[in-house]
Amino acid sequence: MKKVILIKFGGSIMVPEWPDEEYIKKFRDLLNRLSNSYRFILVTGGGGVNERYNRIAKKINKVANDKLDWMGIYATRLNAQLLISIFSDKCYPRVITDPTEEIDWKEDILVGAGWKPGWSTDYDSMILAHRLGAERVIVATNTDYIFDKDPNKHKDAKPLKHLSWKELKNMVGDKWVPRMHIPLDPSATQYAEEKGMSVISLNGRKLDNLQLAIKGGEFEGTVIS
Ligand SMILES: Nc1ncnc2c1ncn2[C@@H]1O[C@H](COP(=O)(O)OP(=O)(O)O)[C@@H](O)[C@H]1O
Ligand SMILES: [Mg+2]
């Protein structure tokens, strides 16, 4: 039986501003190569598309957080539909928008996206990984590690190879704000801790390293458990 791997495909790497054609092609090729031995659940983030729509809405009007989140949710669904289009028959043909629904998939790839306001697709990823029995859960984002503080704001931030759920909870807090840039959203952190999950966070732009993590080799990244 093929092992199931969940990859939370960060909007920051798939759609930094617009969808990154070269990178997405390479990501597709990697997964196609590995699909002899693995099946993948891919959950998309919102990325630059979400960022733009949110920014413009907020410039024009005072918008409530749940409405901003809904724009983000549709952005993640658009990104998900892009993945479905490029994986052809290898992919379950519909975006999973409710991670608690009954899902019967036979293909190598399943794609999920945003569900409801109040969290990011990090949370939807944890629910899918747990329910569908993913062997490994990989959050592919734009930093090599989770650091002790935001590395884009603090030059002296230190990379962490291992982090407990309690430590991550102290870092991310318990309140979600749309487009929050944090290693994992509070709902996802809470859920994964409750279920006793182990989650890898790494730089999804480094595809050789992502491959090592998928195969269970020595990779560069942070393990949360
Ligand atoms: N302790 C931390 N370690 C790593 N990144 C952090 C940390 N705190 C905040 N961040 C920020 O989180 C960003 C990644 O989150 P986000 O922008 O939501 O990406 P994604 O689209 O992959 O979810 C990083 O670029 C970084 O600026
Ligand atoms: Mg995020």
Percent of residues in helices comes to 40-55%
Strand content: 15-25%
Structural shape: globular
The largest sheet has its strands arranged as 3-2-1-4-8-9-7
Low-pLDDT segments, ≥5 res: none
| SSE sequence, one letter per element | EHHEHHEHEEEEHHEHE
The total strand number stands at 9
Q: Indicate the CATH topology.
A: Carbamate kinase
Q: Which architecture per CATH? A: 3-Layer(aba) Sandwich
Hetero groups: adenosine-5'-diphosphate, magnesium ion
Class by SSE composition: alpha/beta
Q: Rg to the nearest angstrom?
A: 16 Å
Name the CATH homologous superfamily: Acetylglutamate kinase-like
Give the N-to-C terminal Cα separation. 26 Å
Total number of distinct structural domains? 1
User: CATH class, anyone?
Assistant: Alpha Beta
Mean pLDDT: 97
Please tally the helical runs, counting DSSP H or I stretches of 4 or more residues. 8
